[in-house]
Design goal:
It is a single chain. With 257 residues, the protein is an alpha+beta fold. Helix content is 45%, strand content 18%. It contains 10 helices and 8 strands. Helix 6 crosses helix 8 and helix 7 runs antiparallel to helix 8. The chain is elongated.
Length: 257
């Protein structure tokens, strides 16, 4: 990196931290005012900084556009892949990565699935497959990651047919359960999707703090009792915290049962 570029990037960091005057930026960077002013003019012409009528400098609109584009283009599947492999190997169970399907009422989409070697029973979900929000652990996590008003609007508009005796079909009961998921940081599913598979899931946060995805551990109840599956929650939330940090967000893991 050239010295000039390094100084310019350093000025952006100082402006972001709240240093807003020419004199303050020169003092903080140890650079002469005339040099700082030339660099600020270049940054301003490119839209990276802006100064008001009191000559205070703030981050510019183009920098925010670039940041949003970076967030939008960040491939959570690629970022999560190494951690998902480690999680699968650590627990010896099937691991899924799911994201919210933006289409109205569409549910969520599995974007990755890792089966343990020699798995005696395979799960029915597949990459690219969809799942309902109201009766899957990943769906509940993704619902919990929405702002409360948006969460309620979406839940009340969802078709909530039952596929098993345990399926929650009452919107108020589902909202209460999802609020609990948001509070504790993980969700569970006890054969609610009409199958013999139980799941636990936890969120992956992006750099902007939003829930970008959900990671689940799935296992047929004939292979592992539900209580034993719950014992894997700390390992799961540790993995999702690591993935979140890899995505630019530093967050503590969820609480264990």
């Amino acid at each position: 990196m050239s010295a000039s570029l390094g100084r310019a990037l350093g000025l952006l960091d100082l402006v972001a931290a709240g240093t807003c005057t020419l004199g303050g930026l020169a003092a903080a960077s140890g650079t002469h005012k005339s040099t700082v002013l030339r660099q600020l003019r270049v940054l301003e012409d490119a839209g990276y900084v802006h100064h008001d009528d009191q000559h205070r400098y703030v981050l510019g609109a183009h920098l925010f556009r670039l940041a949003q584009q970076a967030l939008d283009s960040f491939d959570v599947r690629t970022a999560a892949a190494p951690r998902l492999r480690r999680l699968r190997d650590a627990v010896g169970r099937t691991v899924h990565l799911a994201v919210l399907d933006p289409r109205p009422g569409a549910g969520c989409v599995y974007v990755d699935e890792l089966e343990p070697a020699g798995a005696p029973v395979r799960t029915v979900s597949r990459i690219g497959g969809t799942a309902p929000l109201h009766r899957t652990a990943v769906g509940k996590v993704l619902l919990a990651g929405l702002p409360p008003a948006e969460r309620e609007r979406l839940v009340r508009a969802l078709p909530v047919p039952a596929s098993a005796a345990r399926t929650t079909t009452d919107p108020d009961a589902l909202l209460a359960e999802v609020a609990e998921v948001a509070e504790r940081g993980w969700a569970q599913e006890r054969a609610e999707d009409g199958s013999f598979v139980n799941c636990v899931a936890a969120p992956v946060h992006g750099a902007d703090g939003r829930v970008r995805a959900a990671v689940s551990i799935s296992v047929p109840d004939v292979l592992l009792p539900h209580e034993a599956l719950l014992a894997l929650v700390p390992t799961l939330t540790s993995a999702t915290a690591d993935i979140s940090r890899d995505c630019g967000y530093d967050t503590p893991g969820g609480t264990s049962p």
